[in-house]
Amino acid sequence: xxxxxxxxxxxxxxLYLNPAITGGYICLLYPDKPRHPRQKYLLTDKGIVLYKxxxxxxxxxxxxxxx
Length: 67
Description:
2 strands; single chain; mainly alpha; 67 residues
């Protein structure tokens, strides 16, 4: 988080993760348990389309769904 100028986890959740989840770009691996020790955030199909558009990647054969 220091690398992108954020001070704590709360900022990351409020500024980035929650808007991306409500926008349908990412989803939680364990949606019923947001503090699960193995929680991961997955790109949805909508998120993958946006990722490709922003990165200019249109011929990716193996795109990991984890972010």
